[in-house]
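I am still getting used to backbone structure tokens and would like to learn alongside you. Label the sequence line and the structure token line clearly, so we can match residues to local backbone shapes. Go ahead whenever you are ready, and we will take it from there:
>
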Amino acid sequence: MSGSAHENRCPAYYALIVFTILTSVNQLHRYLLIATIEPMSNDLQFGDKECIVDNATEVQAFIEDVGLNVTDEEFCAADDGVRCINQTSFNNVTLCRWYYTGTGIEFEILAGPVFIIVLGLLGVPVTILAEVGNINRKNVVGVITFLWSVTILCTGFAHTLVEVTVWRFMLGFFQAPFNPFSISILVSFFPPTQRGLAIGLATSGSYAGYGLSYAFIALVELIGWRWSYISAGIGGAVLGILTLLTVKNPPATNDRDGVAALPRSFKDIWNALTPQPWIILSPIFLAFACKMGYQYTLSYNLNNYFGEYYPSFQTDAILSWMLPVAGIASYVMGGFLSDLVGRRFGARGRLSVIVILEIIQIPLYILFITLDLPFNLITGGLSIVAGDGWLGIGLSAMADIVSQNIRTVVYALFFCVMDVLGGSVMVAISPITEAIGFRAALLWFGTGMVVGGTLMILLAILALTIKQRRGGIDPDEPLRVHQESERAPLIDKETTSMS
């Protein structure tokens, strides 16, 4: 990092604040589906449905008239909702109506493949094209923020499931480059000794946005699902324009001090990717795919979980503040520990922090699923604090491993694997639920994903240790050359050159 950047930290801190806010908006727009899916599905009529009482007075009169010995609810729900199918009426009044629950395969597809897989797959080509085209990274972040906010706004005008699907697809398309570019900008702004905390703070915005999506449940009841999308879209578009006008880029990377220049062609990108330590990066990618599968599954089903087992629990009043508090604490703590251990042990130390925190999280998650209120809230909050700050730590570890000139593309590949695989597996929740029940599905699936991710991180640590020892590097010493010149600890001069 240049001397001028050290002298003036204001652009770096301002970018950190803006990108933290943008991450919050990114996640709010992503998870707004949770708050709106129930009224949206009833308005547009898709997903799982139940036959419920439409006019209790007339239903009771009809039951008494024909001499049935059933409750109002049993009357409408009988025979898989035949009275809704036949539109049974009494005194010219329809007795029962379909109620769409906001669950089912349509919801899983909107939450998963239509958005998450698109988000992952398109991030790589869009990022590569932007890198090859030498497009200003800050401008990329500002423009895509504006464009994905427009798709959110347009969702408020959808009148069919197909239209919602198209706008959800476009949301994934425009959000795809956000993480690779915003994280690579922050990594360039901050030195290795502060990088974990900086990335942790930025990515903690994801929990702020996720928690805000639960606050939108109350807003949806007040102004409707359409205006919720419209207002959220307008706010995001304004922030996108603000980013374009006010955020500065970090100092440009150049060939001085032995650091390779940024790639300017597809051949340059390939030549820069080839020598990276993929034997270490591959298990890290798979580990975070497992962890993301757990997080996506729980995130998109948490509201349904409390609605199923604790219908009187006010998710908007409790989770809207509890999730951000626990999540931000997790990311900040993880980033601090990552930097603290990273100064002594480098990437290996950062990855070890993930393992320790995940071992603590696993039993807490099990208790969250199995216990009842209020103990599940306590263990659930502690579970988030212990283990959900993993993303910032992992991104910091990869910044220690990967050459500076190719980080943006590697981050795009990382988010691609994480989102595509993690987003795909969450579709399995519906069939697993049919087989063993909703609570058991969340318990075994979530626990299995976290355990699998932890094992993959252990494999990455093993590969990293072996490579260090074979390279004659003392694994117990931090790599001063990396911290001074921004060269990755596992990459020597030969591998950083664009041969």
Observations:
- Strands lie at 49-53, 89-90, 93-94, 96-100.
